[in-house]
Amino acid sequence: MTPSSWNSLEIAKLLVGALTPLMLALFGIYIHRITKRFEHLQWRSQKLIDKRLEIYDDLAPSFNDLLCYFTYVGSWRDLEPPRIVSMKRELDKKIHLAAPLFSEEFFKACTRFQQLCFETYTGWGHDALLRTQFERRQEALGNRWDKKWESCFSRDVSNPNTIRDAYRSLMEVFARDIGVHEAFVVPPTGLLPRHLR
Predict the structure, then answer these.
(1) 3-state secondary structure of 128
(2) Which position among 11, 165, 172, 194 has the lowest Cβ density within 10 Å, counted as fewest Cβ atoms?
(3) How many domains, in total, are found in the chain?
(4) What is the dihedral of CA 136, 137, 140, 146, to 10 degrees?
(5) CA distance linking residue 109 with residue 106, whole number of Å
(6) At residue 142, does pLDDT exceed 80?
């Protein structure tokens, strides 16, 4: 062997010896970045789910109150018409604020449910009207009924079964968007009261 080839071989060994730790360090940095990115995505997903659950806790009771009121089940007698009208304004604000955190399907389901419950755009400065009949409510409330409440009701009445179906669709989309149940189906709520007017 010649001295120059020996020096080339030694130089190659030194380069390989120096590059190996450098390559391992670069690979470690790459893996660290991927791990951090994955952790950040996980953290962001968890925060999104937490926020969606918080929104669910805020919206779901109001949606359920509307279902009860418009299908004459549960606590519908405890809810006065002006309160239901004001609930619509509150829900509108909350739904529009939450829209970026949910799917377009969720927003459409909310809109559909509310359209069945309320007649909107009834005149400049006028509140939405309740798309249900008032006579049965008047009978149920008796002395507590205020004659002024009759102006809160629309003549364009929605079918309670349609409202119930829209509620079920809304809750199913809600559950999917939260990620709690991918294939959640809201169980039937039973029969509606007979002889609805």
Answers:
(1) coil
(2) 194
(3) 1
(4) -130
(5) 5
(6) yes
Is 197 a domain residue? Answer: no
Token pair listed for 71 = 């299908």
Cα(96)–Cα(54) distance, rounded to whole angstroms? 15
DSSP annotation string for 26-89: HHHHHHHHHHHHHHHHHHHHHHHHHHHHHHHHHHHHHHHHHHHHHHT-TTGGG--HHHHHHHHH
d(C-alpha 50, C-alpha 177), whole Å:
12
Residue 195, pLDDT above cutoff 60: no
Instruction: Tell me how far apart the alpha carbons of residues 159 and 162 are, in angstroms, rounded to a whole number.
Output: 5
What are the φ and ψ backbone dihedral angles of 118, each rounded to 5 degrees?
-130, 140
Residue 38, pLDDT > 90, answer no
Q: How far apart are CA 45 and CA 101, in angstroms?
A: 11
Q: Is residue 187 part of a domain?
A: no
Through-space distance between the first and last CA atoms of the chain, rounded to whole angstroms: 108
Query: Rounded to the nearest 10 degrees, how much is the dihedral formed by the CA atoms of 192, 193, 195, 197?
Result: -80
Q: How far apart are CA 161 and CA 140, in angstroms?
A: 21
Q: Which helix (H) or strand (E) holds 192?
A: none
Higher pLDDT, 187 or 62: 62
Q: Whole domain around residue 82: which residue ranges?
A: 3-178
Instruction: Please report whether residue 186 resides in a domain.
Output: no
CB 60 within 8 A of CB 52: no
Assess if residue 131 is contained within a domain.
yes
Query: Which residue type, as a one-letter code, is found at position 13?
Result: K
